[in-house]
Amino acid sequence: PLALGLYTVNAVYGDTITMPCRLEVPDGLMFGKWKYEMPNGSPVFIAFRSSTKKNVQYDDVPDYKDRLNLSENYTLSIKNARISDEKRFVCMLVTEDDVSEEPTIVKVFKQPSQPEILHQANFLETKKLQMLGECVARDSYPEGNVTWYKNGRVLQPMEGAVVINLQKIVNKSTGLFTMTSSLQYMPTKEDANAKFSCVVTYYGPSGQKTIQSEPVVFDVHYPTEKVTIQVLPQSSNIKEGDNITLKCSGNGNPPPQEFLFYIPGETEGIRSSDTYPMTDVRRNATGEYKCSLTDKSMMDSTTITVHYLDLQLTPSGEVTKQIGEALPVSCTISSSRNATVFWIKDNTRMQTSPSFSSLQYQDAGNYICATTLQEVEGLQKRKTLKLIVEGKPQIKMTKKTNTNKMSKTIICHVEGFPKPAVQWTVTGSGSIINKAKETKYVNGRFSSKIVIAPEENVTLTCIAENELERTVTSLNVSAISIPEYDEPEDRGDDNSEKVNDQAKLIVGIVVGLLLVALVAGVVYWLYVKKSKTASKHVDKDLGNIEENKKLEENNHKSET
């Protein structure tokens, strides 16, 4: 590179400066020398090399002691480049007849350290011009320039809002520069998360370069402009028994630490921190809640609805009734919203609500009346009714001859609750028959069955007894050799509901047939009425036919 038409060597501070002698070595060269020029133009010789003796001599110049090296081709090297090495150096080649000179300009460059933002403000306040910090970049050569950035954009000076001052100080011993740029800044609320940084622009051997500082974010203080109240946990449905917290917040920085809470029914605000806890809320907590700053300058409100669900079951608990009695049952609810009610009997959901005009044994069981508010999670109620239907033992005895004609089956059909205990006896001997088999006890009914092959007529007695009464019924059974009328077995124990359904079906068929007969009769009557005149001759003929039939019948009787 050339500077003002002269050959220039660019060196990095601390590195080795290499300057070739750009002269052609002439014939008859005696020696070569290097010198540099003082600011006043006077020369200072620093190195000598003889072409004949091949020896090298370095002049006693303190700045270059132990730093110089002159090669055979008269290239001069200077170790550990300094700012003071920025000079005009001259290579000289001397013969007996001539002295040739070629100058070289040396330029030294030093990259500054990464800039730092020092003396940072603890926080910034809106509408106030204050010192944000100082950007410091050290040991630069030549001197550099400092630029401030906010969120990646250059901060331009603006009167009363952005004030920048740059100072450059040179170290006299090293010649290096330290740049310090201070920034005074008036922030706005939008600067709360702004990133501030500074960039140093400097020159190096290859041209202009930059180094950027680490970004810095400042805490920006600004007053509260709005107050907000909210309910925690955030849920649109609050139910009785919940624990909730009112939270009041202001959008200032730092946020307010104290507020006034206004509770329904209270005339004055309650001073508290930013939260107001409410435990085990009840339905009377429904209403409008407010909060404000302590100076009452700003306020916000919210409405809380506490959902509730009440259920009343009458009767409830354990209820004991007698078979055939009536039992009115009611399940009423009171709620903050429409609720659904359903019944469960013995873990099975019922299609309709229970109604007992005449209690039967199958009505006994565990009933649950349950209700829920579908919109409010977890709000449900239920109450239970344990219905016990009691009855004195009732007995019906049946008998039948088995298909093998060798034995008879005697069945004692028993109903009652609590379950009666059954005993069999034979009249005369009074002995207890222990070989009876019982069916499953369902809906207050069961059967006890014995199989016998009597050789003579006997009387069997079935005794059923529970806590309410003792019932005795007897049945005469003929010897197996004597034919007798076999009573059909009562299958109502397990099929009572099926029999009822069949009875209903038969009644329906009979009623239908009667209706059809009635319609047919009306039609026939109308037909007869219209055809009365036309049918007289036919009636006469039919009368003759009837007389002939009577004569034939009389003749047949006589012959008999």
Automatic annotation (TrEMBL):
Record-annotated Ig-like domain positions: 103-212, 223-305, 324-386, 393-473
Transmembrane intervals: 505-527
Membrane topology: Single-pass type I membrane protein
Main subcellular localisation: membrane
Keywords for this protein: Adaptive immunity, Cell adhesion, Cell membrane, Cell projection, Disulfide bond, Glycoprotein, Immunity, Immunoglobulin domain, Membrane, Repeat, Transmembrane, Transmembrane helix
Record carries keyword Cell membrane: yes
Entry keyword Lyase: no
GO biological process assignments: adaptive immune response; cell adhesion
GO cellular component: axon; dendrite; plasma membrane
Domain of life of the native organism: Eukaryota
UniProt subcellular location: Cell membrane; Cell projection, Axon; Cell projection, Dendrite
Pfam families to which the protein is assigned, alphabetical: C2-set_2, Ig_2, Ig_3
Matching PANTHER family: CD166 ANTIGEN, CELL SURFACE GLYCOPROTEIN MUC18-RELATED
Protein name: CD166 antigen
Lineage, broadest ranks: Eukaryota, Metazoa, Chordata, Craniata, Vertebrata
Gene: Alcam
